[in-house]
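Thread: Newbie trying to understand structure tokens

Hi all, I'm a second-year student working on a class project, and my supervisor (Dr. K.) asked me to get a predicted structure for one chain before our next meeting. I've only ever worked with sequences, so writing a 3D structure as a token string is new to me. If someone could post the tokens and maybe explain what I'm looking at, I'd be very grateful. Here's the chain:
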Amino acid sequence: MCVTEFFKFYAIGVGRDYAIGAMHVLYEQNKSAEEIAQLALEAAISNNVYCGGNIEILKPWKLGESLLGSPFWHTRLIM
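---
Reply by user tm_fold:
Sure, no problem. This is what the structure looks like when written as tokens:
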């Protein structure tokens, strides 16, 4: 088992390494959080045979603000 702490973004699941790599590249490219999440999930799906399905991005509501003021972004793969 591997435990890694991330400060800018995180991912879970079998495609997490691809998603984190994509987010690392996309973070500085003036893209929205939704665009980064979408592209990171697409990278994971296209590079890992165990990932697949439709992507559904759930947007935050006002009570979902983090302590730093940025919203939580939840993504879910629909298999």
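A couple of things are worth pointing out once you decode it. Residues 72-79 have pLDDT under 50 and may be disordered. The first helix runs from residue 16 to 26. Feel free to ask follow-ups in this thread.
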